[in-house]
Amino acid sequence: MAERADARHRVVIVGAGFGGLFAAKALRKAPVDITLINGTSYHLFQPLLYQVATGILSEGEIAPPIREILKRQDNVDVRLGWVDDVDVEAKTVSASALGIDYTVPYDSLIVAAGASQSYFGNDDFAEYAPGMKSIDDALELRARIFGAFELADLATDPAEIERWLTFVVVGAGPTGVEMAGQIAELAHRTLHGQYRHIDPRKARVLLVDALPAVLNTFGDELSTRALRQLHLLGVEVELESKVVGVDRTGIEVETPRGRERIESMTKIWAAGVAAPALSRKLADAAGASVDRAGRLEVNPDTTVPGHPEIYAIGDMMSLDRLPGVAQVAIQSGRHAAGQIKRRLAGKETGQPFTYFDKGSMATISRFSAVASVGRLRLSGFIGWLMWLAVHLLYLVGFKNRLTAVLHWFVSFIGTGRSERVSTVQQAFARAAMREYGEPVVAGRAGERAGERAAGPAAGRETEPAGRAPESIGSPTAQETAAR
Ligand SMILES: Cc1cc2nc3c(=O)[nH]c(=O)nc-3n(C[C@H](O)[C@H](O)[C@H](O)COP(=O)(O)OP(=O)(O)OC[C@H]3O[C@@H](n4cnc5c(N)ncnc54)[C@H](O)[C@@H]3O)c2cc1C
C-alpha cells in the first residue's frame, strides 16, 4: 500500500469505547498521528451503567473525559463528533458535532462504534421502557426509579400505589439481572424506613425473559445459582415470557400460562442489541456485508473485505460468533493497532484475530455475584470479590477507582446510596427530544435517540419550554415522564 512520503501515517479511530480507546493506547509509541473521534467527550464504562441508574455511582465515575485519559499521549488528537460517513475511495471520514461539520483524512481507519439498543422491531416500546446504553438512559432511569417511590408515597388509591411500586426489567442477561437485583436491594434495604405512607419493602421487582433461563450464556450451573439468589432477594422471575406490548401503565406478556398484563409505571429494557447505523453505511460503502444484527462481517484479521486499511472491531464486528463483550473489544482494538504497527515496520500483516476468553461475571446483589472463568464456576461472596477486582482493574483512572470504592462502601457496607439526585430535565429528556426534535445532534441519522452529544447545548435542548428545573418529587413531572 502506497504511503505518503511527506508525512506520518494517519490513523483515524471512530469511537472511544473499549475498542477504540485500547487501540489508541496500543499505538502510543507508534510513528503515527491519530485522530480519535467520539460522539461524546467521555469514555463510557457501560458495565456499571446500572449502578448510575440505581444511585450507587455518579455518572462521572464511569465516564471519564477522553482528553484526560489520553493527555500524556502526544500522538492523539481527540475530536468530538458523530461520524456519519466514510468515503472509502477518498479515504476520509465525515463527522459533525453540534452543527459543525468536518472531514478527516486517513491512511488507516479503525471503526469501533459499538452497538445500540434493539427493541426487536418494537421501537415504540422505548418511550415507556428506556434501555441501558448511555448516560442519558441511566439518568432517566434513575429519575424514574426514585420518582416512582415518591409518587407511590403521594398516591392514595391502592391500585395506583401498587403500579408505582411495581418495577419490570425486561431481559435476564447480566444487565437485567444486575438491574433487578439492585432495585430489589434499593426497595428492601436502602429505602426502608424513609417513607411515612408506603412501605418500600412491598415493592415488586419482576424480571422477564423469553428464554427459559436467567444468564443464559453462563451455563446451567451458574444460571441456577443466580436464579436462587434472585429469589432470595425477592425478585420475581418470569421465564419463557415474551413481552408483546408496553404502554404507560403496564406491560403485556405472553407467558406459558397465557397472555397477562402487569400493571407497572416503571419498565426497563435490558434486552437486545443492534449494530449502529454506521456499520451498514460502512458495509455499503466498502461492498461488505452485515449479519442479522447489522454487524459488519469482517475478515479474520478484523479488516473490512477488500479494504486492508479499514478495521471494524468490538461490538460492531461480526466474526466467529464472538460475543459483544468488553474483552472482545479491547483485544480486537489491540489487534488492529498491532497490525498497523506491523505494516509500518514492513512486516507481513493479515494475522487472524484470536480471542482469549477471560470469563464472564454478573453481580446479583451486594456481596453476591456469579463468575465463570475457564473451568471455574464461582458464586456468592467469592464471585463478588472477583467482580470487584476486575471492575477496579478496568475502571479508567485512579481518581475514579478511589471514589467508586468509597461509594461502594456507602452502598454495600452501609445502607445509603450516594447519588439519589434526579432532575425534571432528566426525567423529561426523552419526551422533550421527541417533541422538539434533536436539532444539534444530527450525526446519528437513522439511529434511535439514545446517547446524546455532550455539551451544554445538548442539555438545554432537553428542557421543555416554560418549565423551570425542579425536583422529581413533583407528581406532574414524574407522571408526565412515565407517559
Ligand atoms: C448496560 C451494559 C452492561 C454491560 N456489561 C458488560 C459486562 O459486565 N462485561 C462485559 O464484558 N461487557 C459488558 N457490556 C458490553 C460492553 O460494554 C461492550 O461489549 C463494549 O463496550 C464494546 O466496546 P466497543 O468499543 O465496541 O463499543 P462501545 O464501548 O459501545 O464504544 C463505542 C463508542 O463509539 C462512539 N460512537 C458510536 N457511534 C459513533 C459515531 N458514528 N461517531 C463517533 N462515535 C461513535 C460511542 O459514543 C462510544 O463511545 C455491557 C454493555 C452494556 C450496555
From TrEMBL:
Which Pfam families does this UniProt record tie to the protein? Pyr_redox_2
Among InterPro entries, the record links this protein to:
FAD/NAD-bd_sf (IPR036188), FAD/NAD-binding_dom (IPR023753), NDH-2 (IPR045024)
Bias category Polar residues: which stretches?
Answer: 473-483
Catalytic activity, reaction form: a quinone + NADH + H(+) = a quinol + NAD(+)
TM annotation in the entry: 376-396
EC number annotated for this UniProt entry: 1.6.5.9
Q: Identify the keywords attached in UniProt to this record, alphabetized.
A: FAD, Flavoprotein, Membrane, NAD, Oxidoreductase, Transmembrane, Transmembrane helix
Matches recorded under Gene3D superfamilies = 3.50.50.100
> Its domain of life?
Bacteria
Q: Where is this region: Disordered?
A: 442-483
* EC class of the enzyme, as a word: oxidoreductase
Per its record, how is this protein called by name? NADH:ubiquinone reductase (non-electrogenic)
